[in-house]
Specification:
4-stranded mixed sheet; disordered N terminus; globular; alpha+beta; two-stranded antiparallel sheet; 8 helices; about 200 residues
Length: about 200
Amino acid sequence: MPFIRRSRPWQRIAGSATSQEIYLNRRSFLAALGAGAIGAGVALAAEGDTISAASSRPGVARKSKFELGRELTDATVAARYNNFYEFGIGKLDPARRAHSLKTTSWTIEIAGLVKQPRTLDLDDLLQRMPLEERLYRFRCVEAWALAAPWVGFPLQLLIDQVEPLSSAKFVRFVTADRPDQMPGIKEQPWLPWPY
């Protein structure tokens, strides 16, 4: 990919990503996206959507409302330019080092202002939830963009199970903190892990 000038990154990808007006006002745009997709493919429910059978994952339906009208970014490109600082600050560090992360036997703790606090096994949760694929366009403030599929379930389904109290106003997510599997955590102790 050719170098993109940071002062005007939209010139390289105009028409294939977020409009220039929204990009330049991205902070207010991001605030408005409070109901947008949540990391790891868990997204808020979208009503009135149809399902397409064209998903890239067998057995997972694609939400047609989230079609892109363009090709997905090649996985070899997307996997080699990212900011998972848990694996290091170099752009290629996650691609080289993420193999150490164990992705089985994870649990999710739901606590706080809910009637039904609980700890859930992630594998069991994913078996019980109706998974769907959505395609998203991402544009980073660091002047890169990609089009990628995300597989997950509507966050609303999980929220309904734990019954938030009427005083609850926000959903807070805290990531894993596993320095033995995520070498960037040990290398960057000045960052506020977990985030």
